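Ticket #4471: structure output looks truncated?

Reporter: J.K.
Steps to reproduce: submitted the chain below (127 residues) through the standard prediction queue, then opened the result file.
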Amino acid sequence: MDRSLTELQRDEFAQLVRAALRACDRPDLLVAHPLLASHWLAARNGSTSDRLAAGRALSAALRDECRRLFASPRDRVLDRVIEETFFHPRGKQELIAAELGLAYSTYRRYLAQAVTRLADALRAQIC
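Returned output as attached by the reporter:
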């Protein structure tokens, strides 16, 4: 990446967060993710030269941030949607929606809302 995280537009930053979430169940895919260079992650976990450990730390930090952000009982469904989609995926999104007892369109709306809120919260901390 040529630009620092602080120079990214809101949509560009949200795309980075989405990409990180998609790889959270595979920390080996996070070893080159731009969020690894953020002061947010370094402040939470310190720095490490072990890239796989850094990928695991990024995955764990994203999960912790979701738990913090969606801790309210009103947001519990958003936490479950993120958890089942990115941290413990078990199949296609249609299956996840059914397991959560949600219509697929409702699931997709909640997923988009949760990812946007997470990206905005992270951007506020990093930028």
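Triage note (M.O.): checked the attachment and the full token line is present. The CA atoms of residues 59 and 126 lie 16 Å apart.
Status: closed, working as intended.
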